[in-house]
Amino acid sequence: MATATRSTDTLTRDALAVLQPGFTGTSAPDWLLRSVGEGLSSVGLFGRNIASPEQLAALTAQLRAERDDVLVAIDEEGGDVTRLEVRGGSSFPGNLALGAVDDTDLTREVARELGRRLAECGVNLNWAPSADVNSDPGNPVIGVRSFGADPHLAARHTAAYVEGLQASGVAACTKHFPGHGDTNVDSHHDLPRIDVGLDTLHARELVPFRAAIAAGSKTVMSAHILLPALDPTRPATLSPQILTGLLREELGYQGLIITDGMEMQAISATYGIERGSVLAIAAGADAICVGGGLADEETVLLLRDALVAAVRSGELPEERLADAAARVRSLATWTQRARTSGPGAAVQEGTAPGNETGRSATREVGLDAARRAVRVTRAPGAAPLSSAPYVAALTPVANIAVGDETPWGVAADLARHLPGTETGAFTAETGSAEAILAAAGGRRIVAVVRDEHRHPWMAAVLDGLLAARADTVVVEMGVPQATPRGALHVATHGAARVCGTAAAEALVGR
Known about the structure:
Blueprint: H1 10-17, E1 19-20, H2 30-38, E2 42-45, H3 53-66, E3 71-74, H4 95-101, H5 104-120, E4 125-126, H6 151-167, E5 171-177, H7 198-214, E6 219-222, H8 240-250, E7 256-258, H9 265-268, H10 273-283, E8 288-289, H11 297-313, H12 318-340, H13 345-348, H14 365-373, E9 375-378, E10 390-394, H15 411-417, E11 422-426, H16 433-440, E12 445-449, H17 456-468, E13 473-476, E14 488-491, H18 497-507
Parallel strand pairs: 1-8, 2-3, 3-4, 4-5, 5-6, 6-7, 10-11, 10-12, 12-13, 13-14
Antiparallel strand pairs: 9-14
Helix pairs in contact: 1-11, 1-12, 4-14, 5-6, 6-7, 10-11, 14-18, 15-18, 16-17
């Protein structure tokens, strides 16, 4: 049980400084404001904390009234993983779409505009980009969050993203070190293992991280993965060999190291969040991310007291905790300077969120990028949609990083082009070609899938639909690994709102 002591000694303040907790609600609770006043240097935001840009700006102002240099972090990758637009879908395509276009100037521009929107709401640390090389197409948690399976493509776009985001005064957080792409396990649920040698690691996983470091990424996030070639017993987040030996000493990284969420099962189910947090700081991490699932004062007090107790027992060197806290404060100082000077100042000190004053044509860069990422494959003689279709969304279980609260698909956008469009959602339990054919009647069918190659039930439904109705259209909004099929096959490389808009335009021939 955590104590209720409100000590303000240096050790306690350092323990608070290294925590990045979450909370519930759309305004800061009293306990959080009190913790910020006592030394907490960072706060993490999730979709549950955001209702509108205006509300978010008021929330961050509330936090800064307690501490002007507080780090306000968010998991805003754009694409499938959005918190800023969690209820409507992102205005920006994700990494895979940007990688498909392969224009680093575009990636830089997208990241800069995303950063500008975050900055004007008072957010100054973004847990993005994902630098993972998606070398395992069956990966259940990375997928479209990766720029692609080519390490060098991922590297150049990771660097461009970091540069664009930080040009807006928002610190980038390159993740998930040393690379989460070659896994078929989601670390939210279990501990993934990557059995590759050091040569492969350096030639593949580490290539984008080297590029991010060269680009000046202010932070790097560790992965909860086991890499036996470097440490056979501890996951990267808890491994001195990986965080200190590899990242600090070999790669020369001097910025802030942040853990992935400590309540994820890869850590919480094996070490527990208290023990895990102590081991992470001892291994070389500087900030503990927690709050996606555990978002209360009790969690903050538990971790604070665990770190203090570890120092007092001699398990955690006091100078290691002090160094971690100093790195957090150094980043806070950088973001404070960025907020009041340089290119991002006009954004962060300017007009209210949503006001078009000062915005350039880059406000549409997300839709432009989504349009450029669309790939259409046509069967001979296939025609675009000309009448209201039936849209069948074959819906997989969403991974925790993406969440299931954000809408996706093409039906709403198609309805704007073709009024009268109808739609239905089908899962592994409810989806069948017969059910869709019955619901569609005489309408042309648009089957929307997400990672067909990972879901045999989706492939079986498409088999049945195409056998019965050769004019069926297929829209793939995940990784387009499966062979294109259908009268029209549209690959969007992601399920962001703008990807749906771009796909609908392609389906009607615009």
